[in-house]
Amino acid sequence: MRPLSLTGVALFASCAVAQTYQRLGGCPDLGCIFPPDQADFLPGQYFDIRLEVHSPVNGSEARVGEPDPNFKFTISKKGKRAVPATKFFDIKEPELERWNFSWYEDLFAEDADKASLVNVTSKAYRRVALYEPGEYEATLHYYGKEKTVANWLVRDIPKKRRAKNVILFVGDGMTTTMITAARLLAHRSINGKYMTKMALDKFPVLGHQMTHSLDTFITDSANSATALYSGHKTVVNALNVYVDSSEDPFDDPKFETISEIMRRRHPGAGVGIVSTAFLADATPAALAAHTSNRGEYDHVIGAYLNGTLSDFDWTKWDGPDVLFGAGAENFLTSEDAPRDYYKLFAEKGYSVSLNKTALQAAPNDRRALGVFQISNLLTWLDRNVYQNNLKNQANHPDGSGRDAEDLPGLKDMTLKAIDVLNARHGKEGFFLMAEAASIDKQMHVLDYDRSLGELLELDDTVRATIEKLEALGELEDTLIVVTADHGHGFDVTGSVDTEYLEAHEDDRDKRRAIGNYEKSGKSQYTVGGANALRYSEGAHFPARWDPRYAIHAGTVAFPDHRENYKVHKEGARTPAVPAGSSDNYVANYKDAVTGFLVNGTLAPDQAQGVHSLTDVPVYARGPCQELFGGTYNSIDIFYHMAECLGLADTQGDHHHGNNGHH
Ligand SMILES: *[C@@H]1O[C@H](CO)[C@@H](O)[C@H](O)[C@H]1NC(C)=O
Ligand SMILES: *[C@@H]1O[C@H](CO)[C@@H](O)[C@H](O)[C@H]1NC(C)=O
Ligand SMILES: *[C@@H]1O[C@H](CO)[C@@H](O)[C@H](O)[C@H]1NC(C)=O
Ligand SMILES: *[C@@H]1O[C@H](CO)[C@@H](O)[C@H](O)[C@H]1NC(C)=O
Ligand SMILES: *[C@@H]1O[C@H](CO)[C@@H](O)[C@H](O)[C@H]1NC(C)=O
Ligand SMILES: *[C@@H]1O[C@H](CO)[C@@H](O)[C@H](O)[C@H]1NC(C)=O
Ligand SMILES: [Zn+2]
After folding, report:
1. Is 547 among the domain residues?
2. 418 and 525 share a domain?
3. N or C: which end of the chain has fewer CB within 10 A?
4. What is the pTM of this model?
5. What total of structural domains would you count in the chain?
6. What is the residue-averaged pLDDT of the chain?
């Protein structure tokens, strides 16, 4: 057990308790240390330190005046003498920086537009590392007698490498309830017993991870991807940095990610990134970018390309070997980003594929970029069942305004990524992340059918990946982890007679169509329909998506919307539309004309559903699988993968000057 830092609580009991409004997440009082209290580190992991001293004019704190320019910062290994950080890391004293920022204390202050101004003094120590496992105490001394203490833990992690490859599947937003629902839709059961299992059901180890962020109990995908890939929790919108109070989105204290450490510790190892999202989106971006703002899309694509953080003398990991996904808009020349990234990637030696045929024909011995359309990849349901929805999209990845044709899915991209990584890095091994992004994206718009289709595609991809690794002779050397970054409050509570619902006019009469308990019946998705014969081994998807008795599905928090429980054959749902102003969303009548109105439970400015609190499942198979059983924190996924890949560096044997003390 590590001690809790009580300093802040004792000195400033009246502040920092605001919940939705915080001066600065992770900063307990007027002195801030990043990495903050309770941060964990992989031995030898590079990170920056940011110190801030605050001096608010108005706020609960009484202190007025200049922030302390003479603060001191010391570090000690537990049981040893505290020494100045400059001596501890053998680095020069950084320059003092000054800025100011303002914030609202609460909703009343925001309504009254009464911001509190804070003057700041700050210093940043760049690219340091702690090599020796154990507990450390970092102390910021300021305003004479005041201090902020951060307790840090360098985890004692075995250094022996146990897996050649790690494949991490991220079902964005995926919960156990969604997996249960997907199974119900795609697997036939007789008298309460399933005749077939999902690929996930066959994994030997199942765990639970807690997804909370640094300063809020609900996370976003930037924050949670950061935790999964770096072992550090941060705040909403941040990618691989702790967020300081300065305006610059690129000066925040960084920490090293699994892609960077993998290349540094195992020169010649491969890194692959696959996503069904636009590639500048948070879950893929967190393997390359370091910024407080996930919306810095050009920085994200630049970070994939450059694979370096030239500022602050960070390591050069040289970018991924494989980058497959969507979001062509961030690769094409535009006003915001005058670079033609396709050309730049090609110049760096990447093959560039803009469709599935080209993807499959791309040489396996070269780095590979594949960008298949503008925006997020159209969903499995649209690509495979309601293909009319592929038309009139003007989403060709060449930016010509034509429709993208010949789209690959998650499975095509993942299997090709494995071919390339294995061909190029068969000896040194690889780390691959493959994201099923639209489980989350379709949950947000309450389109449960599309979301579950994406989940089934993920399951089919996992199944095909295991087969592929077996064929390549790599299965026993590969750790496969399938997890999520957060959940949505989704579940199924029965079934709905969609014909009865449609046949009635009155909203309350329509609701009599909902059957619970004994009236929920059996899954109607597995019988009849065009795909009825798909029930052997191999891919499992529903035989039909539009049965009369549909699942009665929903989430715990939603905007105003209408519900008829029918699959949306004309494309993804838009549950709510703005009425009058963009902060007032009401039900979209056209979204479910035959349905009934459901009044929202979210703030009226929310157009979509939101992430929820639930722990999410972790499936593991392969070397180190036993590490993933039980209930643990999101960051433990990183530490377990890093352990399995032998990434811990307790010697500083790859250092370039800035060493931790030993
Ligand atoms: C902040 O700094 C400005 C000068 O830049 C000064 O006028 C103001 O009083 C300061 N406020 C606090 C709270 O330090
Ligand atoms: C600070 O708060 C005091 C008391 O609430 C108020 O009179 C004053 O105008 C505030 N100053 C600023 C700069 O907001
Ligand atoms: C805050 O900083 C800006 C420059 O970043 C400066 O122009 C402004 O005067 C400062 N405000 C105060 C109250 O010190
Ligand atoms: C990548 O390198 C180019 C050329 O050196 C530079 O202009 C760009 O800012 C860099 N991008 C990032 C994200 O570092
Ligand atoms: C796919 O890409 C290849 C290579 O650029 C191109 O020759 C082919 O015409 C494309 N196919 C379609 C259907 O767009
Ligand atoms: C929805 O809310 C409105 C008030 O905003 C109310 O008049 C209406 O009865 C509610 N409808 C349902 C179905 O709850
Ligand atoms: Zn989301």
Report:
1. yes
2. no
3. N
4. 0.93
5. 3
6. 91
Asked if residue 450 belongs to a domain, the reply is: no
292: annotated active-site residue = no
Closest CA to 178 of 151, 200, 147, 163: 200
Minimal-distance CA residue to ligand 2 atom 1: 58
Residues 152 and 221 both lie in one domain: no
Last residue of a domain, one of 598, 616, 638: 598
| 407 and 275 within one domain | yes
Q: Which residue has the tokens 């590590």?
A: 2
Q: What is the Cα Rg of the chain in Å?
A: 26
Q: Which residues have CB less than 5 Å away from ligand 7 (the ion)? A: 440
Whether residues 138 and 218 share a domain: the answer is no
Q: CB neighbours (10 Å) of residue 470?
A: 12
Q: Which domain holds residue 538?
A: 492-598
Dist CA 279 CA 272 (whole Å): 12
Which residues have a Cβ under 8 Å from the Cβ of 235 and sit 6 or more positions away? 25, 26, 213, 214, 215, 216, 223, 242, 243
Tell whether the model's pLDDT for residue 531 goes beyond 70: no
Question: In 565-635, where do the E strands start and end?
Answer: 576-579, 581-587, 596-598, 611-612, 616-621, 630-633
Encode pLDDT of 217-229 as tens digits.
999 999 999 999 9
Residue 463 included in any domain: no
Contact 128, 48 (CB under 8 A): yes
pLDDT band at 582 (very low <50, low <70, confident <90, very high): confident
Q: Give tens-digit pLDDT for 376-416.
A: 999 999 999 999 999 999 999 999 999 999 999 999 999 99
CA-63 nearest atom, ligand 1: 13
Residue 26 has pLDDT above 80, yes or no: yes
212 labelled as ligand-binding?
no
> Rounded to the nearest whole angstrom, what is the distance from the C-alpha of residue 331 to the centroid of ligand 5?
18
Closest residue by CA, ligand 2 atom 3: 58
pLDDT tier at 51 (50, 70, 90 boundaries)? very high
Confidence of residue 52 (pLDDT cuts 50, 70, 90): very high
Q: How many helices (H) and strands (E) does the chain have?
A: 17, 30
Res 528: pLDDT:
74
User: Locate tokens 């059901």: which residue?
Assistant: 201
Do both 219 and 359 map to the same domain?
yes
Instruction: Answer yes or no: do 42 and 122 share one domain.
Output: yes
Q: 176-186 vs 448-472: helix axis angle to the nearest 10?
A: 90
Residue 39 is classified by DSSP as E
Sign of the dihedral defined by the CA atoms of residues 646, 648, 653, 658, in that order: positive
516 pLDDT above the threshold of 60: yes
